[in-house]
Amino acid sequence: MPVDEPFHDYSIKAAKGADIIFSVTNEILDKYKMFKVPKYFVNHGVSEHFINDNIDTTINTPMRIGYSGGLLRHEIDWETFFTIIKSNPDKTF
Prior knowledge:
Number of helices: 3
Low-confidence stretches: none
Mean pLDDT: 86
Radius of gyration: 19 Å
Strand order of the largest sheet: 1-2
Strand content: 5-15%
Helix content: 10-25%
Largest sheet: 2 strands, parallel
Shape: elongated
Distance between the termini: 29 Å
């Protein structure tokens, strides 16, 4: 299940022998067109029913904030990332 852009041939060749391929973009799935197996797009994100706007901020003080995602991506805006962290010293990241 590739979720990041396969930049190298060996990343694509890793699918050899797969019975099925899932990915989070159709553009990524297109890169695996030489494999004659079923390919399926699956959404990449959080479904709305998992989002809760009524967070009880009195629990777990200080508030603990986590990040889920690829930290090796070149698109990450590190300046903004660190500005958010530095601007919230009362939170644990």
